[in-house]
Write a structure and sequence with these properties.
Length: 437
């Protein structure tokens, strides 16, 4: 096929040749008139086809592309080919999008795509149902305008999405959702809402069962323990030959009582859906109290020291934090052989208050570290029992810290020692102003 420029050149060339020929055989006037008339017709045909193109572009329907003639036939053929390709790609894209939508809507979890300003870009039917959204009307609206739960808003802006967030189902007050937020590279976020009602129910049943069993066991155990203690204290009541058995019975009942107390504490914390009863805790006083308890537990067998940042406090529930932090201190003493050192530090690290306990005790192998906060996980069962452990201490610590949006960091090396740190978020860190005189 000839190039458009060649075709136009050929037309002008042929017209000029005819007109020169006419000039030679007739006159220059006739030749010029015919040349002008031919050019006018040529121009008019271009204007006509240009107008046709303009009209088609207003509502470009593939089947209605003008056919054109001459140069314009080539232009319209190229346009038709281009439009056909485009149409094909568009159809493929639409069918891929449709398949994606069908697949996404088949996922039982709700999916919401959030833009850089947390506005809703897209969501699935399950997300609409679970979170009370409507893509048709809510697209491009900030999600905080639609999910007006203040804790969810704080979670969204906090930027720490390691733990999922629990939210009530918007259309079924009995149902509980777990919200996961996954930041994407393009500053967008993917929000996943999962209905965990059944899991929560089973979990609640398990917690209730443990709490009930512990309660039921507490009374008979107290009675048995009491009798053993009374008999042990009564002169002549127990023949010397079996006194060692009585001592063993006493040790075991004490252990069981401790276990039950820890189980009750754990199930109480786990089932407590209320946020902690916040107050400003004066940490220097609390740490000094813990130092005294630690010295009593150590019975002079360890060198115990503390370094307390002045004017640094924390906001939280006093009893819960006292229990969690003293657990870390008592562990350090229990897992550090005689003559070892335990150092407590309360300091500010990048706007976050950190309570850490460092010991130069037995240390922990790396493979155990991630599992230490699981219930009853113990590196060395024998040693834990020997030192009066229940295997629930760190589990309780983790739950209490999670309730305070704090993290437990563990660094340890076998034979060198361990450092357990409770890292509090900026929002719970309290820096008191010192007024200069
Ligand atoms: P336990 O009552 O057995 O001490 P915890 O939940 O408090 O239970 O701790 C779990 C396990 O973590 C312990 O059994 C012990 O193996 C390990 N552990 C905790 N603290 C320390 C520490 N300071 N040094 C070495 N090991 C530790």
């Amino acid at each position: 096929m000839l190039d458009i420029r060649w075709k136009a050149g050929l037309f002008i060339g042929a017209l000029s040749t005819i007109c020169i020929f006419l000039w030679l055989i007739t006159s220059s006037v006739i030749a010029l008139i015919i040349f002008s008339l031919a050019l006018l017709v040529y121009l008019a045909s271009h204007i006509y086809w240009l107008h046709q193109l303009q009209s088609w572009l207003k509502t470009p329907v593939l089947q209605e592309i003008p056919e054109g003639s001459g140069l314009w036939e080539d232009v319209y053929t190229a346009l038709l080919r281009y439009e056909r390709n485009n149409h094909l790609k568009q159809t493929e894209l639409n069918s891929a999008l449709e398949r994606f939508n069908i697949t996404a809507n088949a996922i039982p979890d709700g999916l919401v795509l959030l833009g850089a300003a947390n506005e809703i870009e897209w969501c699935t039917k399950h997300a609409e149902n679970q979170l009370g959204l409507n893509l048709a009307t809510d697209q491009n609206l900030p999600i905080v305008n639609l999910i007006r739960n203040s804790h969810f808003i704080a979670y969204l802006y906090n930027g720490n999405f390691i733990e999922p967030f629990k939210l009530k189902h918007c259309r079924n007050s009995e149902a509980i959702l777990e919200i996961f937020l996954i930041p994407l590279a393009s500053k967008q976020k993917l929000l996943i809402s999962r209905d965990v009602t059944q899991i929560e129910k089973t979990d609640a049943m398990r917690r209730d069962f443990i709490a009930n069993v512990s309660h039921e066991l507490r009374t008979p155990l107290t009675v048995v323990g009491g009798f053993i203690e009374t008999l042990s204290d009564m002169e002549g009541a127990i023949p010397e030959s079996i006194r060692s058995y009585f001592n063993m019975m006493q040790d075991q009942t004490t252990r069981m009582r401790r276990l039950i107390e820890d189980l009750l504490t754990l199930s109480q914390i786990e089932s407590n859906t209320q946020p902690p009863e916040d107050m400003a805790i004066e940490m220097s006083a609390l740490i000094n109290m813990m130092l005294n308890d630690a010295k009593a537990l150590s019975q002079g067998n360890h060198k115990i020291s503390a370094e307390i940042a002045p004017n640094l406090d924390v906001i939280g529930a006093f009893d819960e934090l006292q229990s969690a932090l003293s657990n870390l201190v008592s562990n350090a003493i229990r897992y550090t052989p005689k003559g070892g050192e335990v150092h407590i530090r309360w300091q500010l690290r990048k706007d976050q208050a950190v309570f850490s306990v460092r010991d130069n005790g037995i240390g922990i192998e790396q493979q155990h570290i991630d599992r230490l906060t699981e219930r009853f996980y113990r590196v060395d069962r024998g040693r834990s029992r020997e030192t009066g452990g229940t295997g629930l201490g760190l589990s309780i610590v983790k739950h209490i810290l999670t309730r305070h949006q704090a993290k437990l960091e563990i660094v340890s090396e076998v034979g060198v020692g361990s450092t357990f740190s409770a890292v509090f978020p900026k929002a719970r860190t309290l820096q008191k102003q010192t007024i200069g005189l």
